[in-house]
């Protein structure tokens, strides 16, 4: 049986998968950004519950940084620069319904592979059970969904959002593999890429103003 804290963490982790799916498959960039915001807030809550559950109060610093960067700054940047480009995502490589099926398949396969082979991945017995097992399976699933979006989406803004998803997966994996180490919070804070996100969005809007498209395949038109 799970304790109440474990059950809360597991439920919130599954909610991360749902928000990842909505972020990837929404063709409306505004809705996709909102789904990403929801995921960022879920990640903050998960870390806060972990900080109390372990306890590891250094994780509260990580919570605050994620709230500021992923919950405020990145959504603001996506909204600000999103107003300068088309709201509708550029046509992806895979059409809507086949992409839905593929995304669902990736969720099932990577969650099952990670969850069933968890004992071969964990660094110590301290994180051998729940909720770490489910958390890591969710982290790998989120990371793979972000990579899938990065490889199949032609829209440059969507590619930035996909990178944000992958980063969230990395953060959750770090939390799952080394939750009790005080340095984990410092590593999480140090690996935030909000500045890179700002630079990418700034470049993308410049491309859109000149090219009239955020389709990465259209960049060749900028030559000359």
Provide a descriptive summary of the structure in words.
- The protein is an all-alpha fold and 224 residues long.
- The chain has one domain (4-222).
- Helix content is 72%, strand content 0%.
- It has eight helices and no strands.
- α1 (4-25) packs antiparallel against α4 (96-116), α2 packs antiparallel against α3 and α3 (59-82) runs parallel beside α8 (194-211).
- The longest helix is centred in the N-terminal third of the chain and has 25 residues, at 29-53.
- The radius of gyration is 18 Å and the shape is globular.
- The N and C termini lie far apart (65 Å).
Our measurement of the CA-to-CA distance between the termini, rounded to an integer number of angstroms, reads 65 Å
Strand proportion: under 5%
Query: Could you state the order of secondary-structure elements as H and E?
Result: HHHHHHHH
- Largest β-sheet summary: none
Low-confidence stretches: none
Tell me the helix content: over 70%
- The total of beta strands comes to 0
Name the average pLDDT: 86
| Secondary-structure content class | mainly alpha
The radius of gyration over CA amounts to 18 Å
Overall form: globular
Quaternary state of this entry equals: single chain
Number of helices: 8
Count of the domains: 1
């Amino acid at each position: 049986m799970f304790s109440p804290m474990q059950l809360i963490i597991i439920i919130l982790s599954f909610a991360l998968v749902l928000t990842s799916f909505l972020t990837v498959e929404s063709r409306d960039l505004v809705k996709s950004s909102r789904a990403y915001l929801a995921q960022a807030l879920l990640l903050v809550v998960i870390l806060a519950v972990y900080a109390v559950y372990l306890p590891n109060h250094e994780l509260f610093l990580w919570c605050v940084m994620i709230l500021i960067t992923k919950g405020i700054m990145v959504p603001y940047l996506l909204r600000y620069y999103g107003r300068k480009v088309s709201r509708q995502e550029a046509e992806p490589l895979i059409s809507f319904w086949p992409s839905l099926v593929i995304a669902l398949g990736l969720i099932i396969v990577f969650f099952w592979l990670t969850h069933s082979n968890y004992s071969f991945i964990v660094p110590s017995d301290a994180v051998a059970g729940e909720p770490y097992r489910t958390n890591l399976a969710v982290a790998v699933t989120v990371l793979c969904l972000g990579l899938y979006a990065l490889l199949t989406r032609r829209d440059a803004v969507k590619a930035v959002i996909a990178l944000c998803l992958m980063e969230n997966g990395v953060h959750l994996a770090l939390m799952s593999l080394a939750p009790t180490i005080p340095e984990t919070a410092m590593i999480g804070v140090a690996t935030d890429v909000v500045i890179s996100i700002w630079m990418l969005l700034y470049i993308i809007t410049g491309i859109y103003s000149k090219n009239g498209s955020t389709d990465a395949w259209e960049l060749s038109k900028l030559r000359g």
